[in-house]
Amino acid sequence: MSDYTPKPENKFTFGLWTVGNVGRDPFGGPVRDAKSPAELVRLLGEVGAYGVNFHDNDLIPIDATPAERDSILKEFKKALADTGLVVPMATTNLFSEPIFKDGAFTSNDPKVRAYALQKTMNSIDLGVELGAGIYVFWGGREGTETDATKDPITAIKRSREAMNFLCEYVKDQKYDLKFALEAKPNEPRGDIYNSTTGHMLAFINTLDHPEMVGVNPEVAHEHMAGLNFVHGVAQAMESGKLFHIDLNDQAFGRYDQDFRFGAVNLKSAFFLVKLLEDNKYDSSRHFDAHAYRTEDYEGVKDFACGCMRTYLILKEKAAQWNADQEIQSVLAEINADDGSMNQYLGKYSAEKANALKSQAFDRPAIAGRGLKYEKLDQLTVEVLLGVR
Q1: Which end is more exposed in the chain, N or C (fewer Cβ atoms within 10 Å of the end residue's Cβ)?
Q2: Could you tell me if 97 and 55 are in contact, meaning their C-beta atoms sit under 8 angstroms apart?
Q3: pLDDT tens-digit readout, 286-333
Q4: Where are the beta strands (DSSP E) in the chain?
């Protein structure tokens, strides 16, 4: 049996809010005692994680005194040094506090928008201090329950203004930092702006510094929208915009479940891992998920180990799929090309277009060809089931 022990080169990371989740939900209170950030770092060190990420207030409570802040940071930095964990990513909580009940950057109140910028700049400073190279933005309250309350075009402009401001701040401070935007269709708002990865990619192209901004797609969020997550990640990757990724799992049509990676849609998880590994994705593999409410902290460790172990198993399965002679033979047949169409395909020219317009195609013969997709999918299932 292969060794599925996580290694630093796997770049597996967890947020303080993931392993630190105390099991509270809308119908019940906590089932686990809260642990300090330093304690959570040590827990992650025990399970072999590479890094830890945080929202500003996961680490420093919003009303902490300067002395409390210094004490927390000292303990946190010591835990990082003791375990060897790093901080690849940081983000700002712009959704929990009552002041953000109607959004942060898209709020109708200019005082809220200004405070959101202030809070984010301070949080960026903290993230950079601790080594973060990626800064994620999730606009959990940037939306509406009724479109009577906000003009959506104004909201887009406010979002752009905020991102342009913060990009300039990073450049002014000479920070080596990139932004990654995270989409979600709904929850906690009825509808959230820039609701999918595709929306975010289009929005980025309108910014003053699009080269600084990419995306942080999340499995559960795209599945909430009923979309194929692998396709969204592929679009981001092909665009050079996959700066970070949130791995978890989610049943289609449900609320944001944040299950352990691979816990629900195993075939989708397989093709995601295959996409990342085949294309040599080199940023963090961040698990934005949490343990079931049924678990104690030993169960939280089981959850964290399970996320990493499943990824490594699927990575091995992807290599097996790529090396399987029968699978590769089917793929070669599917993609067979005798070169006869080369004169028509590729970059446009007037000569090529005129020649193509006169080409005769035997539609019944072409349409009558079986593609062996059933066989290919079954072979994939058999790889995953361990019978090949």
Answers
A1: N
A2: no
A3: 999 999 999 999 999 999 999 999 999 999 999 999 999 999 999 999
A4: 12-15, 51-55, 89-91, 134-138, 143-144, 178-182, 191-192, 213-215, 246-247, 285-287
- Taking only the tens place, the pLDDT of each residue in 97-151 is 999 999 999 999 999 999 999 999 999 999 999 999 999 999 999 999 999 999 9
Rounded distance between C-alpha atoms, residue 368 and residue 349, angstroms: 31
Q: Is 127 within a domain? A: yes
Structural domain range at position 351: 325-385
Task: Clarify whether residues 331 and 279 are in a common domain.
Answer: no
Q: Are residues 224 and 201 in the same domain?
A: yes
Residues 102 and 220 reside in one and the same domain: yes
Question: Is residue 315 within 8 Å of residue 278, measured between CB atoms?
Answer: no
Cβ atoms < 10 Å from Cβ of 321: 21
Instruction: List the end-to-end C-alpha distance of the chain, in Å, as a whole number.
Output: 15
According to DSSP, residue 89 is labeled E
- Residue 3 token pair: 């060794």
